[in-house]
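## tool: complex_structure
## caller: assistant
## args:
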Amino acid sequence: MDAVTVPAPAPAAAAGMPPRRVLGAYLAEARSECLRYLRAPGFMLPIVLFPTMFYLLFGIVMAKSEGTDATRYLLASYGVFGVMSPGLFGFGVSLAIERDGGLLTLKRALPMPPGAYLLGKMLMAMAAAAMVVLLLLAMALGLAHLPLTAAQAGALLLTGTLGVLPFCALGMFVGTLIKGQGAPGMLNLVYLPMSFLSGLWFPLPMLPKVLQQIAPVWPSYHLDRIALAAVGLGQGAWWPHALALAGFAAAFLLLAARRLRRHG
Amino acid sequence: MNEPLQPVARLAGAVKRYGAQLALDGVDLVLRRGELLALLGPNGAGKSTSIGLLLGLLRPDAGRAELFGLDPQRIEARRRIGVMLQTAMLPPTLRVGELLRLTASYYPDPRPLAESAALAGIGDLLKRPYGRLSGGQQRRVQFALALCGRPELLFLDEPTVGMDIDARRRLWAAMRALVDEGCSVVLTTHYLEEAEALAQRVAVLDKGRVLSEGSVDELRAKVALSRIRCLSDLDAEAVARWPQVASASRAGGRLQIATSAAERVVRRLLDADPELRELEVQRAGLAEAFTELTRETAEQEAA
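## result:
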């Protein structure tokens, strides 16, 4: 009856950490990372405004005469355009600034669980990407009355949420090359030309032949192919493009990890 | 586990090069439980490099760095330390309470949030975004982050830079309270009075080597200098040539003399200038001891 269990004094000196608290640390890191950017209008506004404004103008208002196919096509490509930036900027700019400002050094000195820093940024980028896709979907369905099945909408959302990852890796790599305030400019030099060259602004067939041929070099080209397949405009299988993206992600991640280990 | 004899942190023959430049040239340091060690030295002496090695941010090229007998890069070792670095731009949009909660989440047995805030004197700032705080308030928040994990060892790199006198005194009091709890502290500082007020042991570094290590009194005794100040017309340059006078100069009408034999010099002064007034004799502070120590090595190297 008197089975009162006396809690053993925590062996604080042994510095063991129960798995629940380790998980809690990962969650706290991800939560802080999301909070800090949601509260930073300088970060969130461009990410949300550019794709939605472009889509409203070119995909809905001006595409009225061309029927729903243009609206459908541009939903995919502006979706990709919108998904790239939280990956590139969320990772690249913040890493460049935090390497410069000493926050990364402090985090490395603190007992933050391994990978929590990068995992937190990754989740933040995925959430921002999902938000951009949801906004575009709402505009396509609500304003342009685009006939889109639930499966198609869901597939596009999934494409965007996972499709941000190779751009996270690319942004992380650029963030390891540059310190401080130079990063946004450098990332725009990657972001804007790459969007144009992979047919996110004008359909690829409207671009010169040479540019069409080199388009598969860009990760955004492959994500665009998958996004088009998601909304029902696919040509051929989508999975080779997914493999290509996985390859890009792995390659940039490795490069970035090597530089981080060497230069911190 | 009975480990009062085991050092909390240790550098043994630590060597660190940055390219051709030798930043640490065989440094030995031992920190014991419940002890506050101050690292003093001019810029580039190797203070930050020593701390970087102990935190596992850098790898020694030769020798060893240990925390609680473990490699500092092991997370088990770092879960027992708290850190306040010289520069750390924390996310400006996060509130102070959120930063505290995040940092506390890394530790197995952190302090309650209110206790950390009270110790660092930031109880009234918890709801404020970090970016809106003044420089001194930000430093206090960083101090709270350093102690929130109930660390057994605290690294404080120039903690009171940018603080007003009042805030500095409060931080000193908090540091004393932590040491009384049994926490060890490694403190680097430019303010010698800070080391004098707080440290049980002082290590003076210069050019990557430990010049002197010991209690504040031992360090003072090592450079047994006294400071004499008086109003007198005597020529400072002539006095400087007297035996056992280390230096003499004139500042604001007063003659200032540093000497290892105050009694003799005072007698000779009074003989030489019967008009002498306002005589003061003081034991050298850490500042004099420190300049004397680093000056000696500079002279040895020049020779």
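## assistant note: The two ends of chain A are 58 Å apart (CA to CA). The mean pLDDT of chain A is 89. Handing back to user.
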